[in-house]
Amino acid sequence: MFEIIIDTCVLVSALKSQLGASFRILSLLKSKKFRIHLSTALVLEYEDVLKRPELNLNLTTRDIDKLLDILCLLGEKHRIFYQWRPLFNDGKDDFVGELAINAQAQAIVTHNVKDFQNITNFGIKILTPKEFLQLIGEIK
């Protein structure tokens, strides 16, 4: 099973369009082809970003809460005891890297590949949603 962290931008993309790789990843959550890893900080960021009205996601707060509940139900939860800061140029991304390191994730799946370059020093891949789907054999 592939161990991943899903960056917030992937969730936003998945909720904006059902046609892309990001949505496909969400649709495969129960497939056992991969496992997502979560921390309190990441779930709180998911909630904060997904509930921003300017995103025009056409979802109710209740819909977003249900999605977060599903992610929390299916994801492996981690408490972060050891911090690796600073990891990235944008300090707001450090908690994602810390989760990836602590969870021993194999990859961070993101559209913002350049933001996470330093994580490769820990043997963690940075993959776009499409690259991740190719890696697990879902698309060619």
Description:
- This protein has 140 residues and is α/β, with parallel strands linked by helices.
- It has a single domain (2-135), classed as 5'-nuclease (Rossmann fold, 3-Layer(aba) Sandwich), CATH 3.40.50.1010.
- 41% of the residues lie in helices and 14% in strands.
- It contains six helices and five strands, in the order βααβααβαββα.
- A five-stranded parallel sheet has the order 3-2-1-4-5, sandwiched between helices.
- Helix 1 crosses helix 2 and helix 3 (40-50) runs antiparallel to helix 4.
Key phrases:
140 residues, 5-stranded parallel β-sheet, Rossmann fold, single chain, alpha/beta, 41% helix
Q: CATH fold name, please?
A: Rossmann fold
Encode the helix/strand succession as letters: EHHEHHEHEEH
CATH top level class name: Alpha Beta
Strand content: 5-15%
Number of domains: 1
Annotated CATH homologous superfamily = 5'-nuclease
> If classified by CATH, what would the architecture be?
3-Layer(aba) Sandwich
What is the terminal-to-terminal distance? 19 Å
Largest sheet: 5 strands, parallel
Number of helices: 6
Overall shape: it is globular
